[in-house]
Known about the structure:
The structure is a single chain. The protein has five helices and twelve strands. By secondary structure, it is α+β, with helices and mostly antiparallel strands. The termini are far apart. The longest helix has 18 residues, at about 225-240. The structure holds uric acid (URC). Uric acid binds near residues 183, 194, 247, 274 and 302.
Amino acid sequence: MIESPQAPEAAAPSAVLGPNQYGKAETRVVKVTRDGHVHHLKDLSVSVALSGAMDAVHLSGSNATVLTTDATKNTVFAFAKEHGIASAEQFAIHLARHFVTSQPSIHRARIRVEEYTWERIGAPGQRVGVPGERIGAPGERSHSFVRAGRETRTAQITYDGSTWQAITGLKDLVVLNTTDSEFRGYAKDPYTTLPETSDRILATQVNARWRYGWTDDREPAPDWDDAYTRTREHLLDAFAGTYSHSLQQTLYAMGSRVIEQRPETVEIRLSLPNKHHFLVDLAPFGLKNDNEVYYAADRPYGLIEATVLRPGTEPAIPTDLTLL
Ligand SMILES: O=c1[nH]c(=O)c2[nH]c(=O)[nH]c2[nH]1
């Protein structure tokens, strides 16, 4: 007997979709507010996570309910311009409300913000990075900042039984100028696309090592702590006070300041990553970006390195500071 074909039973699902969310993570937005010649800085990393009616996106391939992660990133930049960044919380509230109220498919928005705090670089002789010092105190820098959270101090001492070598340094000292930096007039080849600029953000994470002239322990050694503090101040002051045509020029200004001002130091090597800040194009959203909203790029980065020496001194600090 021929069996009649049976209707197939509905197959039990082999998997089910559980909790899900999506969005753009770690959008680095930098907002400069220019109050006359005094500039204010907000530097955030914003992560957006959205969830709601997203079953079809995962299960059927329909993207009809998906607001793109690219749009969520653009919204961060556009809102920095439109609403400003009063605080991390207030900024996140604006964003979360926007996503949940403007897209029927989005029922929940979680906005995470990391804020990197910056302090003003003090004028020469002033204390540096003291929170609460009045902005606009005589000579205080109006557009130069140092990232809060202290850098790491390094020291290397070498002794071969007769001669001493002392190399002190610092790393991860992050500094930023919101103006007084240009970069133009450079060589052009068929692969050059970088637009020339006469006003850009200049930011770097200072990695420095300096060698003292002291080699003989019958001679008085430098006052290590004072030498460190003063050298750090000179590096900050030269960074803040130099009108920069390139990071190379700023590097030389920093190194030569130390050589000229600190008689105990004979050599300094600086390794300066160029922490690029690109202006965000807000024109597609009908907004003008008047040097206010920047995208802080992570990598790749330019890396500018050089040694500055007291005349007559042979270089002895390794050119690759990671070897130190
Ligand atoms: O200060 C800079 N120096 C460079 O050599 C360089 N190259 C580049 O693309 N941007 C910059 N900026």
